[in-house]
Amino acid sequence: GQQVMQIPQYQHVQEGEDFTTYCNSSTTLSNIQWYKQRPGGHPVFLIQLVKSGEVKKQKRLTFQFGEAKKNSSLHITATQTTDVGTYFCAGPSGGYQKVTFGTGTKLQVIP
Amino acid sequence: EAEVAQSPRYKITEKSQAVAFWCDPISGHATLYWYRQILGQGPELLVQFQDESVVDDSQLPKDRFSAERLKGVDSTLKIQPAELGDSAMYLCASRLDRAYSYEQYFGPGTRLTVT
User: What end-to-end distance do the CA atoms of chain B give, in Å?
Assistant: First the structure.
């Protein structure tokens, strides 16, 4: 079945440093979504990407969908302590509106 | 802002007991998902409903888990009997059935501990 892997699994950064997480799928995706889960919380939808090579920005967050639609990245510029959490990508995995979540990247920001 | 409701938030139960979780999705959301999330991992889909119909339960351990959404609104997930390995966060999510919109809204989850 489809696998969605994310790297790195963990990342510790100093506040103010940049952060990037990468998402790789074993199959071509029609779309990809990104979610953030704060410690002790539930996943919260951030964005969805649909087009090949698409780039979207949300303030300090930049999301990119690969040209082959098999990978994606999330880049955070000048991290803040509020960015702490686990970031998941998710892509369709067959069936009606079914998605598979990636393995997640846990971000820790050191003040 | 509309939210997905879940109860209880926390549940401690003994092995071999029955346990049930409830979810009320955002009004008008036809698609409802139940996920299980083990600490440090991503959510794993257990069952997906479209209105009152199950559209995917391929990962649901059907010997002990059951789920229903009788009127196509709120939903119940049941485990009987619970096993130690069932300790996890159980998340409910809903989605508006709209073309090209894949956004899922998650509830706060139920943290299950089986002793």
Answer: 37
Give the pLDDT mean for A8-14.
97
Candidates B27, B20, B23, B19; CA nearest to B6 is B23
Which candidate, A99, A36, A96, A90, places its Cα nearest to that of A65?
Answer: A90
Rounded CA-CA distance A109/A74 in Å is 16
- Looking at residue B99, what is its pLDDT? 77
Contact B13, B82 (CB under 8 A): yes
Query: Residue A95 has what pLDDT?
Result: 65
Mean pLDDT per segment of 10 residues, for chain B of length 115 residues? 94 98 96 95 94 93 96 96 97 88 93 98
Q: With an 8 Å Cβ cutoff, is B115 touching chain A?
A: no
pLDDT at B23: 98
Per residue in A87-103, is it b (16+ CB within 10 Å) or e — as a string? bbbbbbbeeebbbbbbb
For residue B109, give the nearest of A99, A104, A42, A37 by alpha carbon.
Answer: A42
Supply B7's token pair: 């109860």
Q: Which of A97, A101, A85, A89 is nearest to A13 (CA)?
A: A85
Contact A48 B101 (CB under 8 A): yes
Are the Cβ atoms of A95 and B44 closer than 8 angstroms?
Answer: no
Summarize the confidence of residues A7-30 as an average pLDDT: 95
